[in-house]
Amino acid sequence: MADRLLRLPDVQEKLGNMSIPVIYRYMEQGILPRPIKLSTRMAVWKESWLDAFIDSLDSGQELKKNFDGQ
Question: Does residue 65 form part of some domain?
Answer without folding.
Answer: no
